[in-house]
Amino acid sequence: MTLPFNDNPSENPYYKGRGAQINPKNRFLKGDYQQEHAEGIDEWWQADVPTQIFEEHAKTLVNKVDSPDVGMWYSINPYQGCEHGCVYCYARNSHQYWGFSAGLDFERKIIVKRNAPELLKKFPDNKNWSCKPLSLSGNTDCYQPLERKMWITRQLLEIALEYKQPVGIITKNALVLRDKYILQRLAEQNLVCVFISVTTLQEDLRLKMEPRTATGLQRLKVIKDLCDLVFPWA
Questions:
Q1: pLDDT tens-digit profile, the chain (234 residues)
Q2: Which of 70, 86, 106, 120 is nearest to 200 (CA)?
Q3: Residues 6 or more apart from 44 whose CB is under 8 A from it?
């Protein structure tokens, strides 16, 4: 089901805080249906709804990355879908494999791997594992707003420290500072690298492109605070 689109822009609803404004058809669902024209007899408007959580009892957690242009060996994604709602996110299409849409569903129907810490704890014991960095957020942000409640990423970092497993983090959320002390302990052993992307310092533009991320100024502060942990004399 998708939002009907009206040729008159003033009559189209705008969902504040959402990057996507429509819910396009999932091309993998043969029985899916949608409204193609707003003038149809059985019209509907799809109101915005709060974020929904779906739990997955995952069997595996670490994914080997074969793409030569990504720059990582293995990835870990404790969440599928992302509340940040970045309009340009390349991970949107992957949400269709779960039976959801790449549009609004991607940012308001989040799949949680609650057993991710349990799976990671077993992983280093694999006799075939030759230690390489694991990248958190290979697909969606491991510090998206839901992490504030779930604490899954924090548990993964604690396990990485326990097993001396190197990890990389990519995030647009200042929530990463919640775990700065465990990141410091990892950094002391050269076990962690944190990437913060600063897309723009224009707040009106960020609200359109990345509606639920940290502001550009907040991200600069995150970079400074993390650098101060590692280089306090700088």
A1: 344 444 444 556 666 777 676 666 666 655 454 554 444 444 444 556 789 999 999 998 998 888 777 778 899 999 999 999 999 999 999 999 888 999 899 999 999 999 999 999 988 888 888 889 999 988 899 999 999 999 999 999 999 999 999 999 999 999 999 999 999 999 999 999 999 999 999 999 999 999 999 999 999 999 999 999 887 655
A2: 86
A3: 1, 4, 35
Q: Six-digit token pair at 166? A: 């190197």
At 69, phi and psi to the nearest 5? -105, 10
Pairing of strands 192-196, 167-171: parallel
Extract the tokens encoding 2. 């998708």
> What does the alpha-carbon distance between residue 87 and residue 107 come to, in Å, rounded to a whole number?
10
C-alpha 228/C-alpha 210 separation (Å) is 27
This prediction has a pTM of: 0.79
